[in-house]
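Lab channel / #folding
Pinned by the channel admin:
"Please post every new chain as: sequence first, then the structure tokens as a reply. Keep commentary short and put observations after the output so the thread stays searchable."

First post following the new format, from NK:
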Amino acid sequence: MSNRTDFVAGFILGGLLGTALALLFAPRSGEETRQQLTSSAEQLRERARERADDLLDRVRTGAQDLSERGRAALDDGVGRLRDAVERGREAIEEKARERQGRGGDPTES
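Reply from TO:
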């Protein structure tokens, strides 16, 4: 996530630096310069908003995927636990039937 943050910060800084250099080297009137600054700021803001929206969509998609995989793993674990409990119950019942068939007390070890 740090790389993305660094990229966005560099992108914004580069846009600001580019705008400043353009102002220094482009001979314009004060009104034209203000219009150019306003236009550049709006473009930069829009690009930053698009990047933030894209990043938010990626985070949401990743979180949803992680949630679905976690839910699937949990369901799998619960299913295996139920199977193990059922096999244990069947083994106990079988052992009890064997003891009853031999005339023993099913509660004895």
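NK: The chain has a mean pLDDT of 85.
TO: also worth noting, The longest helix spans residues 30-101.
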